[in-house]
Amino acid sequence: MLKLTIVKTFIEDLLVFEPEVFEDERGWFMETYSYNKLKEYGIDVNFVQDNHSFSKNKGVLRGLHFQNNPHAQTKLFRCSKGLIQDVAVDLRKGSPTYKKWFSIELSASNKKLLFIPKGFAHGFLTLCDDVEVQYKVDDFYNKELDRSLRYNDHEIGIEWLLKNPILSNKDKNAPFLRDSDINFIK
Length: 186
What we know:
Blueprint (H helix, E strand, L loop, with lengths): L3 E5 L6 E5 L2 E3 L2 E3 L5 H6 L8 E7 L5 E7 L7 E7 L1 E8 L10 E7 L5 E4 L3 E7 L4 E7 L8 E3 L20 H4 L14
Antiparallel strand pairs: 1-2, 2-10, 3-4, 5-12, 6-11, 6-13, 7-10, 7-12, 8-9, 8-11
Protein backbone atom coordinates (compact mmCIF):
# COMPACT_ATOMS: atom_id res chain seq x y z
CA MET A 1 0.00 0.00 0.00
CA LEU A 2 1.34 3.44 -0.87
CA LYS A 3 2.09 6.20 1.59
CA LEU A 4 -0.35 9.09 2.03
CA THR A 5 0.55 12.36 3.72
CA ILE A 6 -2.41 14.11 5.34
CA VAL A 7 -2.02 17.85 5.97
CA LYS A 8 -4.41 19.54 8.39
CA THR A 9 -5.71 22.97 7.45
CA PHE A 10 -6.68 25.74 9.87
CA ILE A 11 -10.28 24.51 9.57
CA GLU A 12 -11.03 21.40 11.63
CA ASP A 13 -11.75 18.28 9.55
CA LEU A 14 -10.79 19.95 6.23
CA LEU A 15 -7.72 18.06 4.99
CA VAL A 16 -5.24 18.09 2.13
CA PHE A 17 -4.03 14.68 0.92
CA GLU A 18 -0.63 14.36 -0.71
CA PRO A 19 -0.33 10.88 -2.24
CA GLU A 20 2.97 9.15 -2.78
CA VAL A 21 3.86 9.17 -6.49
CA PHE A 22 6.14 6.60 -8.11
CA GLU A 23 7.88 7.93 -11.20
CA ASP A 24 10.25 6.37 -13.70
CA GLU A 25 11.12 6.71 -17.38
CA ARG A 26 7.65 5.42 -18.36
CA GLY A 27 5.68 7.98 -16.35
CA TRP A 28 4.11 7.78 -12.89
CA PHE A 29 1.64 5.91 -10.69
CA MET A 30 -0.29 6.90 -7.55
CA GLU A 31 -3.26 5.73 -5.50
CA THR A 32 -5.93 8.44 -5.46
CA TYR A 33 -8.11 6.65 -2.92
CA SER A 34 -7.86 3.74 -0.51
CA TYR A 35 -10.62 3.04 1.99
CA ASN A 36 -8.20 1.04 4.15
CA LYS A 37 -5.55 3.76 4.11
CA LEU A 38 -8.04 6.45 5.17
CA LYS A 39 -9.44 4.20 7.87
CA GLU A 40 -5.88 3.90 9.29
CA TYR A 41 -6.01 7.69 9.72
CA GLY A 42 -9.41 7.56 11.43
CA ILE A 43 -11.37 8.62 8.35
CA ASP A 44 -14.23 6.18 7.82
CA VAL A 45 -16.17 7.40 4.79
CA ASN A 46 -18.05 5.19 2.37
CA PHE A 47 -17.94 6.93 -1.00
CA VAL A 48 -20.86 5.91 -3.25
CA GLN A 49 -20.35 7.91 -6.45
CA ASP A 50 -17.56 9.33 -8.61
CA ASN A 51 -18.05 12.52 -10.63
CA HIS A 52 -15.93 13.88 -13.49
CA SER A 53 -16.21 17.47 -14.72
CA PHE A 54 -14.68 19.20 -17.75
CA SER A 55 -14.37 22.97 -18.18
CA LYS A 56 -13.11 24.12 -21.55
CA ASN A 57 -12.22 27.71 -20.65
CA LYS A 58 -10.02 29.51 -18.16
CA GLY A 59 -12.16 31.46 -15.70
CA VAL A 60 -15.02 28.99 -15.25
CA LEU A 61 -16.26 29.13 -11.67
CA ARG A 62 -18.42 26.27 -10.40
CA GLY A 63 -19.91 26.85 -6.96
CA LEU A 64 -20.40 27.39 -4.19
CA HIS A 65 -22.37 24.13 -3.93
CA PHE A 66 -23.54 21.82 -1.14
CA GLN A 67 -26.43 19.59 -0.12
CA ASN A 68 -28.36 20.21 3.09
CA ASN A 69 -28.92 17.51 5.69
CA PRO A 70 -29.97 14.74 5.76
CA HIS A 71 -28.14 14.22 2.44
CA ALA A 72 -25.06 16.38 3.00
CA GLN A 73 -22.00 15.10 1.17
CA THR A 74 -18.38 14.50 2.05
CA LYS A 75 -16.20 15.05 -1.03
CA LEU A 76 -12.72 13.97 -2.04
CA PHE A 77 -11.69 16.35 -4.80
CA ARG A 78 -8.77 16.43 -7.26
CA CYS A 79 -7.77 18.09 -10.51
CA SER A 80 -6.66 15.48 -13.06
CA LYS A 81 -5.97 17.90 -15.93
CA GLY A 82 -5.03 21.56 -15.72
CA LEU A 83 -5.08 23.87 -12.68
CA ILE A 84 -7.83 25.12 -10.37
CA GLN A 85 -8.32 27.27 -7.32
CA ASP A 86 -10.33 25.01 -5.04
CA VAL A 87 -12.31 26.60 -2.19
CA ALA A 88 -14.22 25.17 0.78
CA VAL A 89 -16.32 27.28 3.16
CA ASP A 90 -17.21 26.12 6.68
CA LEU A 91 -21.00 26.43 7.05
CA ARG A 92 -21.28 24.55 10.35
CA LYS A 93 -23.01 26.89 12.80
CA GLY A 94 -21.20 26.65 16.12
CA SER A 95 -17.84 25.90 14.51
CA PRO A 96 -15.00 28.27 15.51
CA THR A 97 -14.31 28.67 11.79
CA TYR A 98 -17.92 29.24 10.71
CA LYS A 99 -17.97 31.33 7.48
CA LYS A 100 -14.17 30.96 7.08
CA TRP A 101 -12.85 29.68 3.79
CA PHE A 102 -9.81 27.73 2.68
CA SER A 103 -8.26 27.92 -0.77
CA ILE A 104 -5.69 25.69 -2.45
CA GLU A 105 -4.41 25.24 -5.97
CA LEU A 106 -5.02 21.71 -7.18
CA SER A 107 -3.42 20.60 -10.40
CA ALA A 108 -2.53 17.61 -12.51
CA SER A 109 1.11 18.28 -11.66
CA ASN A 110 0.88 18.66 -7.86
CA LYS A 111 -1.57 15.72 -7.57
CA LYS A 112 -2.99 16.95 -4.25
CA LEU A 113 -6.54 16.13 -3.15
CA LEU A 114 -8.88 18.11 -0.91
CA PHE A 115 -11.02 16.20 1.61
CA ILE A 116 -14.17 18.24 2.28
CA PRO A 117 -16.41 16.93 5.06
CA LYS A 118 -20.15 17.44 5.40
CA GLY A 119 -21.09 20.98 6.39
CA PHE A 120 -19.03 22.83 3.79
CA ALA A 121 -19.85 24.68 0.58
CA HIS A 122 -17.42 23.98 -2.24
CA GLY A 123 -16.42 25.70 -5.44
CA PHE A 124 -13.58 25.86 -7.89
CA LEU A 125 -12.21 28.28 -10.46
CA THR A 126 -10.34 27.10 -13.56
CA LEU A 127 -6.97 28.82 -13.95
CA CYS A 128 -6.31 27.54 -17.49
CA ASP A 129 -8.21 26.08 -20.44
CA ASP A 130 -9.17 22.40 -20.68
CA VAL A 131 -9.55 21.49 -17.02
CA GLU A 132 -10.81 18.17 -15.68
CA VAL A 133 -11.71 17.51 -12.06
CA GLN A 134 -12.75 14.27 -10.44
CA TYR A 135 -14.34 13.77 -7.07
CA LYS A 136 -15.97 11.21 -4.86
CA VAL A 137 -19.09 11.79 -2.75
CA ASP A 138 -20.54 9.76 0.11
CA ASP A 139 -24.21 10.44 -0.67
CA PHE A 140 -26.10 10.59 -3.93
CA TYR A 141 -27.33 13.79 -5.57
CA ASN A 142 -30.60 15.00 -4.05
CA LYS A 143 -32.35 17.68 -6.11
CA GLU A 144 -34.57 18.84 -3.22
CA LEU A 145 -31.58 19.45 -0.92
CA ASP A 146 -29.16 20.78 -3.55
CA ARG A 147 -28.08 24.33 -2.63
CA SER A 148 -25.77 27.07 -3.84
CA LEU A 149 -24.31 30.22 -2.35
CA ARG A 150 -23.21 33.33 -4.20
CA TYR A 151 -19.51 33.00 -5.06
CA ASN A 152 -18.85 36.67 -4.24
CA ASP A 153 -20.84 36.94 -0.99
CA HIS A 154 -19.16 39.73 1.03
CA GLU A 155 -20.10 38.00 4.28
CA ILE A 156 -17.75 35.16 3.28
CA GLY A 157 -15.21 37.27 1.35
CA ILE A 158 -13.44 34.68 -0.81
CA GLU A 159 -10.43 36.07 -2.66
CA TRP A 160 -10.77 34.46 -6.07
CA LEU A 161 -7.63 34.48 -8.22
CA LEU A 162 -9.45 35.71 -11.34
CA LYS A 163 -12.08 38.43 -11.74
CA ASN A 164 -15.26 38.22 -13.85
CA PRO A 165 -15.67 34.44 -13.88
CA ILE A 166 -17.78 32.45 -16.30
CA LEU A 167 -20.85 31.28 -14.35
CA SER A 168 -23.87 29.07 -14.91
CA ASN A 169 -27.30 30.65 -14.44
CA LYS A 170 -27.66 28.64 -11.24
CA ASP A 171 -24.48 30.17 -9.81
CA LYS A 172 -25.23 33.69 -11.06
CA ASN A 173 -28.56 33.58 -9.22
CA ALA A 174 -27.43 31.75 -6.08
CA PRO A 175 -28.59 33.29 -2.79
CA PHE A 176 -26.36 35.07 -0.33
CA LEU A 177 -25.55 33.35 2.96
CA ARG A 178 -28.01 35.55 4.87
CA ASP A 179 -30.84 34.29 2.62
CA SER A 180 -29.86 30.62 2.71
CA ASP A 181 -31.55 27.79 4.61
CA ILE A 182 -28.29 26.05 5.55
CA ASN A 183 -28.94 23.46 8.27
CA PHE A 184 -25.42 22.44 9.39
CA ILE A 185 -24.55 22.51 13.09
CA LYS A 186 -21.17 21.61 14.61
